[in-house]
Amino acid sequence: MPHETLLKFNYPNTLLHEYTHWAVLLRPQQVTVGSLVLVCRAEIMSMAEVSAEAFAELHTITADLEGTLKHAFAFDKINYLLLMMVDKHVHFHVIPRYATPRTVEGVEFSDRAWPKPPDVTQALELSEQQFAELFQLLRTAWPTEHD
Questions:
Q1: Radius of gyration for the alpha carbons in the chain, expressed in angstroms and rounded
Q2: Residues 98, 69: contact at Cβ < 8 Å?
Q3: What is the DSSP letter of 7?
Q4: Which letter does DSSP use for residue 48 in this model?
Q5: Is the pLDDT of residue 95 over 60?
Q6: What are the start-end ranges of the H helices in the chain?
Q7: 65 belongs to a structural domain
Q8: How far apart are CA 58 and CA 82, in angstroms?
Q9: How confident is the model at residue 70, as a pLDDT?
Q10: Contact 48, 82 (CB under 8 A)
Q11: CB 1 within 8 A of CB 84
Q12: What is this structure's pTM?
């Protein structure tokens, strides 16, 4: 049974890829285009509780997600935010950062906070169709050789 943090980010509808210990979701509220949530699947509330196996799996996952986002959007930087203020289970907000606007499916998106820290309380305006197209673009591009 998925825990409440996974469900908060609309799991399984936003699931890009599920690993043994982690799930990568397209963040329902896009801070910048391509924003993800990397959620530990275990019922744990602190980084100290993450197993050695789950930590080791992060090597593969971060390579997969950074490679996918770099190919799709050519991000300039990437931010991993471990906040856990509202959603208590271990998870990272993965925010690709852009010095210049990016065009996705014919729509231009800017990183309004660049070069300052991202503001996770502000979301890009995407229609349901645009979100679905973004999801499909990333899901199709996700590496599968680790399955």
A1: 15
A2: no
A3: H
A4: G
A5: yes
A6: 4-8, 52-73, 128-141
A7: yes
A8: 14
A9: 97
A10: no
A11: no
A12: 0.95
Phi, psi of 36 (to 5 degrees): -125, 170
Q: Provide the token pair at 89.
A: 């289970």
CA distances from 116 to 21, 98, 104 (A): 31, 11, 23
Domain that holds residue 37: 4-136
We report the CATH number of the domain holding residue 86 as 3.30.428.10
Tokens of 139: 């899901």
pLDDT, the chain, mean: 95
Give the number of domains in the chain.
1
**Strand, coil or helix: 61:** helix
Taking 70 as the threshold, does the pLDDT of residue 53 lie above it? Answer: yes
For the cut 70, the answer to whether the pLDDT of residue 49 exceeds it is: yes
Q: Is residue 144 part of a domain?
A: no
74: DSSP letter: -
- How confident is residue 146, by pLDDT bands cut at 50, 70 and 90? low
The rounded distance, in Å, linking the Cα atoms of 73 and 86 is 29
- Read off the DSSP letter of residue 112: T
Residue with tokens 């800017």: 110
Of 147, 144, 141, which Cα lies nearest the Cα of 69? 141
Which contiguous run of DSSP H or E holds residue 79? strand 77-81
The answer as to whether 122 is a domain residue is: yes
